[in-house]
TrEMBL record:
InterPro entries: Secre_tail. Keywords: Signal. Residues 306-384 form the Secretion system C-terminal sorting domain. The lineage of its organism: Bacteria, Pseudomonadati, Bacteroidota, Flavobacteriia, Flavobacteriales. It comes from Chryseobacterium shigense. This is Secretion system C-terminal sorting domain-containing protein.
Amino acid sequence: MKKHLFPLFLLVLGANVQAQQDFFAIAGKDTSSIVFSDFRVMDAASGASGEKIFSADAAPKVFSQERKGPVLEDKNSYNNSQAVTMAALAYDPSNNNLVYMPMFSSNIYVLNAKTKEITLVENTVSKVTSCDINSHITRMATGYDGNIYALNNAGTQLLQIGKKGGQYTVSDLGIIKDDASNGKYSFTAMETGFGGDMIADAENNFYVFSASGNVFKVIAKELKAKFVGKISGIPDSYSVNGSAVNSRGKVIVASAKGDNLYEVDMQTLQAKALPGGEKPHIYDLASKYFINDRASSVSTLANIDIYPTRVDEHFINVTANDKAVKGNLSLSIFDISGKNVMKQNLAVKDNSLNQQVYLKNLVSGAYLVNIADESGKVILNKKILVTK
């Protein structure tokens, strides 16, 4: 049965007219070295820059999570929220936060994209030193389980940045090693595996794009990196420094050298340039989307929905107001493996529904909620993330 249910968890991502608001970048100045300019919104369809959220010249409001108060930072050090060496960014959609780390620092910063306030998460777990290029954190991504993951150049530390009691926590998951089949395309070698960025898929695995354009699949449970192939269709001199998934499930890559953004087909690793000709200097990209994730909101009816999708209490609300909604509906919840973990009937009255559903004993993680009509036809699929 699981074999038939799992594809249901993988429904095609629909286009989202607001998708560009969920696509972010660390941008740099027009220099030969890495010099942080700003965090900005990007249009993932054209590659054009949008709103600048926070810049190197802004006056920061930084609050220490550990000390529970404001802090003053030395802007001449690597340990500050506007350090020149920025190369790792992830987006936490639950709070509209940008989570990032300066490349030569162990500090983790959380920038609220709306208020512009920054939380400093003092990180004693990672072993970053400015003089050791192997230790620099250059890749970050939001995992399908809702945690943020960060990886250093040599793969010797995979960090998990989670939340507990409203506070960010950091764990070291271990060392990522080369798969035996990698041969000369080593994940841990500077020439073939360093730098770049990473994205996540719907099974909480990661794809790391090295600066050289090589792609490795990192299976987090096994702590192994397997060489997938090399991106084709980009210039020979192109340095892949940012990667993120757009609302259609396509991967966008960007370069710190100042060049076009490219859309990459993950089946063929063929890249095509986005139409915009801006050629920004991009050190990292981030979004809320995943590859192989077909668990976006897909509805055959106009006025049926589930909220919230980030569940930090024990309930979700199901609403419907559509003439096509008749009789009783059934709600089913599947975990990430496709196992049906909950089922409940929903009563529709006068073509409308407004019902609160108790999630019982669901543990933290990603789930797919689907609603079917009396005939068994699925009329809504939506992913939720339980964080209670």
